[in-house]
Amino acid sequence: MPLIKNKQIVADTWQYVGDEAAIPADGGVIVSLARWQAERSVLVGRNAPLGIRLKSDESAEAIADDLPRFDVVALEFPTFKDGRPYSTVRLLRERHHYTGELRAVGDILRDQLQFMRRCGFDAFEFADETAAEKAISAFDEIEAVYQTAADWRRSAAMIRTDTANAFLNGTCG
Amino acid sequence: MAMQVISANRLVDGLVVYMTGGGGWSERIADAQAVTGKEVGEVAMAAARVAEEARIIVEPYLIDIDESSGERRPTRYRELIRAKGPTVRLDIGKQAEL
Amino acid sequence: MYLYDTIDQSLVDQRVEQFRGQVRRRMAGELSEDEFKPLRLMNGLYLQLHAYMLRVAIPYGTLSSHQMRKLAHIAQRYDKGYGHFTTRQNLQFNWPKLEETPDILAELADVQMHALQTSGNCIRNVTADQYAGAAADEVADPRITAEVVRQWSTLHPEFSFLPRKFKIAVTGSSRDRAAVRVHDIGLVVKRDEAGAIGYQVIVGGGLGRTPMIGATVRDFLPKRHLLSYLEAILRVYNQAGRRDNMYKARIKILVHALGAEEFIRRVEAEWEAIRDSAVDLPAGEHDRIATFFAPPRFEALPNNDGEFARYRLEDREFAQWARTNVAPHKQLGYAIANISLKPEGGIPGDATTEQMNAIAAIAERFSFGEIRVTHEQNLVLPHVRQADLYGVWQTLKSHDLATPNLGLISDIIACPGMDYCSLANARSIPLAQDISKRFADLRRQHDIGELKVKISGCINACGHHHVGHIGLLGVDRKGEEYYQITLGGSADENTNLGKIVGPAVPYDKVGSAIETITNTYIGLRADGESFLDTYRRVGNDPFKETLYAAH
Questions:
Q1: Do domains C6-110 and C134-290 have the same CATH topology?
Q2: Over residues C148-176, mean pLDDT
Q3: First-to-last CA distance in chain A?
Q4: Is B14 close to C427, i.e. CB distance below 8 A?
Q5: How many domains are contained in chain B?
Q6: Domain C413-549, what architecture?
Q7: Which residue of A has its CA nearest to C158?
Q8: Residue numbers of the domain that contains B24
Q9: How close is the nearest chain C Cα to the Cα of B1, in Å?
């Protein structure tokens, strides 16, 4: 499926492997939490990249200790209205300091991309190419932000405080 | 068997409309095409969904009507208010334009 | 009042263009109605019974004259010449066209207003005490906190798809005019012994299908921790709130299911992990926001202005208005003037373009250009010189805005009901009109005294019927409008939920039922007892007897 990373459509080198399917010897695979928990030693012993996919009711804590083993964590939106992955992804980035790919999968729509990126997602899986292409412009629709989040953008309050300090220190204008 | 018409809201302005015989939409319930029976109703609804796909209307549904008084009126009170306008502002809505 | 800087302005401007793009995509067929609906809702655009409805946010109920004129203009140009002030201190336009909505939003952005988050499962427009900055009994100004919360909650990336909508209310006074105990989060701004500002944090109140009074989760949260603490509460809710049943998805259900103790434990644990992080405001930013709410330049005036006293003696009608609609101000020589939007037989909360313009002009001349919207669907001129009250009253009167009924039986809260709302089971407005006509005699109203009637057209309780001294809830009985009557509710600092008094009564029997209830009260009351006092003393039974014996 088309994948957006860094505001570009890129080739997806990862393969989802169902819970019953055989795991290929080579190439990056993404497995479910259940399979990871059941076949952990087999998966660790495999000499290829590994990713994990969490359902929206599966928590960041469930994989927190294993994060260094994953190159991708995919979080599933069963419907765009299910907002739990927004918390999960922030916890993975901010609390557990995960630095690999955080991929939004499932019901991914253009108009939620800004929120997703702010919370720490850096890869977005779309159902079709056209939708993905049209979605790229959504990242830049609104520049100002009021909150600090996992994208480390400077909040309005921080910018204002900087401006005020610059003024006080005489470094302004 | 109860007579029915299809009602919806027009996409561009949200106003209440009714499906007419030619597959068009009118703001007046009097212009609507009445249908009777489940099968005929389903055929009409299929046509309404085409209009929804074509972005003319949203959320079409069948409503029961009654013509026994000589005037066509929706059976449900809610639909009567939709057909006329707010009961507390007789100066606005469809009732004001009749 | 808070004024936008370039950052605030760019956000609302870009949000308007974003919505313009979304409407364009809808019209071009790139978005289905299913996909578009949540997008329009996040900009306050509903599809109601007759047409679209645009709900404009009035953050913590504060408006300038300039903004009021813009609302009047929008009503005239894009709607049918009126607007409806709601129980959430917002304004609703009932007839906007979808294709014109982006232009309406652009007009709003011109005066630093928006319709952001007036719908959807996000943090809704924050509400506050309408007397903020003016009330004689105020401990601290809730608007500063409300503006901090407004900014933090605007387009919050993590909390825009919560299990359900989320409402936050703030009061800064011991007398609760913001109904903080029936909100998802209620904040009471208070001072500790050293005089430092902090908050009592109340979580899990709400009306609707399952009315509940909120639990206090913190007696005193120091000011600097506010946003991290809110973020902790919202994160616990976002992860653990129910998503399988929309009727059980509000935070009150979560608090109830976990028990307050366990809920607090989870919030505190989450907060430990994020406190003292960048989530909280830099100290300077709080101070920057606070400067916008510095008191206006009051004149040094004597209290009990002589002219005000003289006019009250000379003009009985004015005296009556002054008694009900004027409240004490913290500044000597000033007063708070309430504008009733409940004229006899009128639609609660409705104001015409002409009235909005008149109020804007009065506020500009006599109230430092400030207007407030109350959750009881009235307006307030917060800072009027006592000496100006007579002139203000005369002008208000000429626009049918001076009904002296604040807090009386005809000062009724009513949701739009089945006359406008697609969710309603029954009408609300005509009942309010009928009651206000029955009790039109002001002497009778004054004799009955404080009595809050609140009417909802469905179980969603937009008319706050659970907390009405008399509450009416519209239900559909085989296509007929019936109303369930509750007694003894209140939304103040002693919040109570009303009790159902007996079987629902049909539409045309409601007026006489209200008369029976008030007559029963008058027959039972002891000296100086209000309706609520008497009710609390005698309970439901005497009312039940007279109500149902008579039928």
A1: no
A2: 97
A3: 50
A4: no
A5: 1
A6: 2-Layer Sandwich (3.30)
A7: A86
A8: 3-97
A9: 19
Cβ distance of C27 and B77 shorter than 8 Å: no
Q: What is the architecture, at CATH level 2, of domain A3-141?
A: Alpha-Beta Barrel (3.20)
Give domain limits for chain A.
Answer: 3-141, 143-173
Q: Which CATH architecture has domain C306-398?
A: Alpha-Beta Complex (3.90)
Smallest CA-to-CA distance from C497 within C209, C178, C67 is with C209
Identify the segments of chain A with pLDDT beneath 70: 171-173
Q: Is the pLDDT of residue C426 over 90?
A: yes
Mutation target vs A (from C160, C239, C291; most A CBs, 10 A cutoff): C239
Long-range contacts of C445-450 (CB under 8 A, 24+ apart): C445/C405, C445/C408, C445/C409, C445/C410, C446/C320, C446/C324, C446/C408, C447/C522, C448/C408, C448/C409, C448/C518, C448/C521, C448/C522, C448/C531, C449/C408, C449/C530, C449/C531, C450/C407, C450/C408, C450/C530, C450/C531, C450/C532
C504-529, pLDDT tens digit by residue? 999 999 999 999 999 999 999 999 99
Interchain proximity C51–B13, CB inside 8 Å? yes
**Interval C256-280 mean pLDDT:** 96
Contact C50 B55 (CB under 8 A): no
The C-alpha atoms of residue C286 and residue C61 are separated, in whole angstroms, by 20
Residue C479 has pLDDT above 50, yes or no: yes
Question: Which residue from A minimizes the CA distance to C17?
Answer: A141
Instruction: Tell me which chains share at least 3 CB pairs under 8 Å with chain A.
Output: C
- pLDDT number for residue A173: 46
Domain C134-290 homologous superfamily, CATH: Sulfite Reductase Hemoprotein, domain 1 (3.30.413.10)
Q: What is the pLDDT of residue A171?
A: 60
Which of A129-138, B76-85, C370-379 has the least mean pLDDT?
A: A129-138
CATH topology (fold) of C6-110 = Sulfite Reductase Hemoprotein; domain 2 (3.90.480)
**Does the beta-carbon distance from A81 to C7 stay under 8 Å?**
no
